[in-house]
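Researcher: Structure for this, please.
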Amino acid sequence: MEISWLGYGCVRVRARTAAVVMDPYTREGGLNMSQPNADIVTVSHDDPRHNNASGVKGEPLVITGPGEYEVSGIQIQGIRTSLKSASLPLDGPAKDRNIAFVLEAENLRVVQLGSIGGPPTSEEAEELQNADIMFVTIGPDGLSADEAARTVRVLEPTMIIPIGYGTTGTEDPDLKAFLVASGISPEAPVQRFSVQSKGSETQRVILLDCRGV
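Model: Predicted structure, token format:
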């Protein structure tokens, strides 16, 4: 499995049988994800930084809601959660909800939280825990540093990939604050992260270079 961060909360996960782009965005914010190819697109909520499925090449299945799906050997579960800064209940309009996604492929469990409203509730944690890889959105579209660290402690993923922070890389203040709050030393940044197995149980923070331009 190969993972790239395309900017904001957008990631591309490429397995042997299919590719998934999660939370594709428009150019309105100044970044460009450069029309990645995918077989599956997931959208956590209805916002230009998360819902630009038309900007993805190919004819992907677009998943925008809760439920269970299977495409080309990849299993995906959408889980409804609170949305960052949302004031309406979870049974409110779709635009006021976040969908977190659990992706299972190649014996790996990957969790993308989208713009979850805060550290998960006990009900949400039951669905989102035990991840081999978890994308944690921090910064303007995601959790604060302390919220992200608490989320990591609650869900206990093995590999943590922070996304959503600014384009200043390791000097970004939101990233620095998260690393301090989590107490986990990061690995050196890479353009793509490749993983073939679950590996050890020791928690790791994987830093990806932002490929949005």
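Researcher: Any notable elements?
Model: Residues 145 and 178 are 4 Å apart (CA to CA). The mean pLDDT is 91.
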